[in-house]
Design brief:
The complex is a heterotrimer of chains A (about 260), B (about 280) and C (about 325).
Chain A: E1 3-14, E2 20-32, E3 37-41, H1 48-55, E4 63-68, E5 71-72, H2 79-88, E6 89-92, H3 107-111, H4 114-117, H5 124-134, H6 139-142, H7 152-166, E7 170-174, H8 182-199, E8 202-207, H9 210-216, E9 219-224, E10 227-232, H10 234-239, H11 244-252
Parallel strand pairs in A: 3-8, 3-9, 6-7, 7-8
Antiparallel strand pairs in A: 1-2, 1-4, 4-5, 9-10
Chain B: H1 2-9, H2 13-35, H3 66-102, H4 104-119, H5 122-132, H6 138-146, H7 151-164, H8 168-175, H9 180-188, H10 193-216, H11 227-236, H12 245-279
Chain C: E1 2-15, E2 18-31, E3 35-39, H1 46-53, E4 61-70, E5 73-74, H2 80-87, E6 92-95, H3 109-120, H4 125-138, H5 155-166, E7 173-177, H6 185-200, E8 206-211, H7 214-220, E9 223-228, E10 231-237, H8 238-244, H9 248-255, H10 262-267, H11 297-301, E11 307-310, E12 313-315, H12 318-321
Parallel strand pairs in C: 3-8, 3-9, 6-7, 7-8
Antiparallel strand pairs in C: 1-2, 1-4, 4-5, 9-10, 10-12, 11-12
The chains are: A alpha/beta (about 260), B mainly alpha (about 280), C alpha/beta (about 325).
Chain lengths: ~260, ~280, ~325
């Protein structure tokens, strides 16, 4: 097993006097193989972003474990161990603007990761240029600029270029295209497929959009209220959904070539 | 970016006014003693003379030149204010940043320390320390004020850090393997630079008033002059009741002008930075 | 029968470096009993357009030029007082973006209802309560919600309550701006059903539905208008837009939709190269020409006129104007 998530649970306690418990993720278990592209589909409140942060070792789980290459991710302590992990497992978030520190030029986001690669003699400039070209960005257009000078699509592509630079074993993308214009989404989506096709990078793609998941995934996992309720190939999910939530999801997605019957 | 910032700031009237008032008094304090070379602590004339040609601001009960006192006093008061503010800022930012970023046990223990220092009546603390030291130079007075005035800064910095640390760009720096210290100094604090500067201005304003307070109860500098010390002697020799207005009005007015201009500056900065933050 | 007519409307935002031409010479026509979808990507000016159409304009937005007539009333010449008294809430109502998050947290739903009704009529509390109950029942909304605070209701319920309150006085035209973008699909369907019921029940006559989600429009809109960079590029019946669109941008936008259907799967993932332009300095000529696969010389120099190719079908494209499509 490449990455295995076992019984992952996250409970948030909120409130000052009367402490309330919110169960964001409940006993989540799934696994992913090398070079596999899976989608975690769920609506807001389903716990998918919380799951992503736990797998990326950014938010501590309440219980359960995440095993990567036979090592428990949350038992890693030293900075070197952590760097080993993030060299191979990396993340991309939803908001292309918030992913940049507004005070620095966008180059920083790319050059930062050389610390993980550890190759002192690397020709950093040409590696960076190569990565930018792979995602369809022209180096002259984006290098040396501040985040607010670029468009949302360019910023998100820059983030993906960071992954092309690292070529990690696993990329976790949390709603990477939801804040990008509809007419340019497909292009950005294909960059993830390319990472998988060319570099055998596994992808965990998190989205609320069943349509997107349908087109890029090998396997779709449906999340509801913190747990996985159904799992299957895109065809299985669309043609033979088993769980009532999946069925409802499929019925309520607005389609282009079919009208809802009672409308 | 900085020049654009200054250009935009000077468009705000409050900013211009406050900077004008503060820097003119500062200039007087820096240049004055070199131009008007009279010793402020020596008796140089008859006592309690109102302002005249020979003594522009008159003399006090000990025959000392009050203009000389004022000029030296401005210098020392600003020095003490700035130094105390710097000390408080350093302590407050360090504790607030570590507390906010690390969380857990570090957070709880540092906040406990903060609460204790906050709860202690700072005047009492300052009095105890100041009274224990026989000789008090400006640096020591600044230190005393500095180590008691930082709790609000620590709390404010901590809450800013708490809200900033779950922003995606912090996650990106974490995943790039940056150490905690690097993230605090490279990512978090620069994004709070405007707040830190405002805190400094406010601290300085408060420190100058604290210095006056300490001096008025006889715990100010033992050598040299500060605005607070002038007021101390003026109050000791009952200048108000006896109508020796040239003794207490100039230093009082200067102190108020300095403290108020700093407060005005902080509101001007706040006005400039806040809508930015909201617009994001 | 025309309900809303807008001619050569220009609405710009005044910024430090000039004007952002959010709505640039737009002529818009809406009949009675029509649900019109207004689609386009972020920054195309659709929100600005609908707010301008009901004269909901404040600086830095200014109406530079144009006439707007609603139900025979010349809105563009009215002052704010008249608009507040005679137009807003009565002839036209808008549910703005993120309305469900803008509700006053310290007022119950019934209080909001009271505010709206009292602004236009002098009626007793009991009357107000019974009007509200009747309307909620008519729309299949739980009457208990009237007595709750906004935070006690789910996102979907809040949005439906806002829609019900906006239409209490039966405005002829309802404008909804991205009403379902923040909602999950099942809640979205509920809200859409409510909007359709409003027309079916005769509470509103026509509706303008602003969104970037074409699939949603396909389910409820009779006609669709496509906007790009401050201009209208095509307007036609929904089926025509979906299957026979004439403007290259419309075609590109339809092709970019990714719904889990075999037809879309056969077509594959398609995107339009480049990005929507900055409205401070839009391109010369046709604003879409830098991204258009069919751009000709004239497209770079002259703006294409909006022509009617068939009854109710308008397109702004030189290819169409020159008879090549």
């Amino acid at each position: 097993m490449f990455l295995e998530v076992r019984n992952l649970t996250k409970i948030f306690t909120v409130g000052f006097l009367r402490r309330k418990e919110i169960v964001a993720v409940k006993g989540l278990s799934f696994n992913i193989r090398e070079g596999e592209f899976i989608s975690l589909v769920g609506e807001s409140g389903s716990g998918k972003t919380t799951t992503a942060k736990m797998i990326l070792r950014l938010l501590r789980p309440t219980s359960g474990s995440i095993i990567f290459k036979n090592r428990d991710v949350w038992s890693l302590r030293t900075l070197n161990d952590l760097r080993w992990y993030w060299r191979q497992v990396h993340g991309i978030f939803q908001d292309p603007f918030a992913s940049f520190n507004p005070l620095y030029k966008v180059d920083r986001v790319l050059y930062q990761v050389f610390a993980l690669l550890g190759d002192k003699d690397a020709d950093k400039e040409s590696l960076v240029k190569e990565a930018l070209e792979e995602v369809g960005l022209r180096p002259e257009e984006v290098l040396g600029r501040y985040p607010h000078e670029l468009s949302g699509g360019q910023r998100q592509r820059l983030m993906i270029a960071r992954c092309y630079l690292l070529k990690p074993k696993l990329v976790l993308a949390d709603e990477p295209v939801s804040m990008i214009d509809a007419s340019t989404r497909a292009g950005v989506l294909q960059l993830f497929s390319k990472l998988r096709d060319e570099y055998k990078t596994s992808v965990i793609f998190i989205t609320h959009d069943l349509g997107l998941a349908y087109y890029v995934s090998d396997r779709i996992l449906i999340m509801y209220k913190g747990s996985i309720v159904e799992e299957g190939s895109p065809e299985e999910i669309m043609e033979h959904p088993q769980h009532p939530y999946t069925k409802r999801l499929r019925e309520d997605v607005p389609l282009l070539y079919r009208k809802w019957p009672d409308f | 970016m900085v020049s654009q910032l200054l250009r935009d700031l000077t468009r705000i009237k409050k900013f211009d006014l406050s900077i004008a008032i503060f820097s003119s008094i500062l200039m007087i304090g820096l240049v004055g003693p070199m131009v008007y070379q009279v010793n402020p602590t020596k008796m140089i004339g008859p006592p309690e003379i109102p302002p005249s040609d020979k003594y522009p601001l008159g003399t006090d009960s000990y025959g000392r030149d009050l203009l000389a006192q004022l000029l030296h006093g401005i210098r020392n008061s600003i020095y003490i204010g700035a130094t105390a503010a710097a000390i408080s800022l350093a302590i407050g930012v360090t504790i607030g940043a570590l507390s906010g970023y690390k969380g857990g046990v570090t957070d709880s223990s540092l906040m406990l320390v903060t609460d204790v220092v906050c709860a202690l009546p700072s005047i009492m603390l300052m009095m105890l320390i100041a009274a224990y030291l026989k000789e008090r130079n400006p640096m020591l007075v600044a230190l005393v004020i500095g180590i008691t005035s930082w709790p609000w800064v620590a709390r404010a910095v901590r809450s800013q850090i708490l809200s900033l640390k779950s922003r995606e760009f912090i996650y990106m720096s974490k995943m790039a393997g940056l150490s905690d210290i690097k993230i605090i100094f490279q990512d978090l604090l620069p994004n709070m630079a405007s707040y830190i500067f405002m805190a400094f201005v406010l601290l300085m304003s408060g420190a100058m008033i604290a210095e006056a307070g300490l001096s008025m109860i006889g715990l100010g500098v033992t050598r040299g002059v500060s605005l607070g010390m002038i007021l101390y002697w003026a109050q000791l020799l009952e200048s108000v009741r006896r109508g020796l207005w040239w003794w207490f009005i100039p230093p009082g007015a200067c102190l108020v002008a300095l403290a108020t201009s700093l407060l005005l500056l902080s509101t001007a900065l706040d006005e400039y930075f806040s809508p930015r933050l909201k617009g994001g | 029968m025309t309900l809303l007519e807008a001619e050569h409307v220009k609405a710009y935002y005044r910024v430090r470096d000039g004007f952002v031409k959010a709505v640039d010479d737009v002529s818009f026509h809406l009949d009675r009993d029509v649900i019109m979808g207004l689609a386009g990507e972020s920054g195309c000016g659709k929100s600005t357009l609908v707010n301008t159409l009901m004269m909901n304009i404040h600086p830095p937005l200014h109406l530079i030029d144009g006439h707007i007539t609603l139900d025979g009333n010349l809105l563009s010449k009215m002052d704010k007082q008249t608009l507040k008294k005679k137009v807003w809430g009565i002839l036209v109502s808008i549910v703005p973006q993120a309305a469900l998050n803008a509700l006053m947290p310290t007022k119950k739903i019934i209080d909001l209802v009271r505010d709206v009704i009292r602004a236009h009529m002098d009626v007793s509390d009991a009357e107000i309560l019974s009007m509200a109950r009747r309307r909620f029942e008519e729309l299949n909304l739980p009457v208990e919600a009237l007595n709750m605070y906004p935070h006690e209701l789910s996102g979907g319920m809040r949005q439906r309550a806002v829609i019900a309150i906006s239409t209490l006085l039966n405005p002829k035209l309802l404008i909804v701006d991205e009403p379902t973008s923040a909602l999950d699909v099942s809640t979205q369907k509920q809200v859409l059903r409510l909007l359709i019921d409003l027309r079916r029940a005769g509470i509103i006559e026509s509706m303008i539905f602003v969104t970037h989600d074409i699939a949603v429009l396909r389910q409820i809109a009779d006609k669709i208008t496509i906007m790009y960079a401050g201009k209208i590029v095509e307007c036609a019946l929904t089926d025509d837009i979906l299957y026979n669109s004439k403007h290259p941008y419309t075609r590109g936008l339809i092709n970019a939709v990714m719904t889990p259907e075999p037809e879309v799967r056969r077509r594959g993932l398609v995107s339009i190269p480049g990005e929507p332009p900055n409205l401070l300095n839009p391109p010369h000529g046709c604003r879409f020409h830098p991204r258009c696969p069919y751009a000709m010389d004239i497209c770079k120099r002259e703006e294409p006129p909006l022509i009617e190719v068939k009854e109710g079908w308008t397109v702004a494209c030189h290819l169409v104007a020159l008879g090549k499509r």
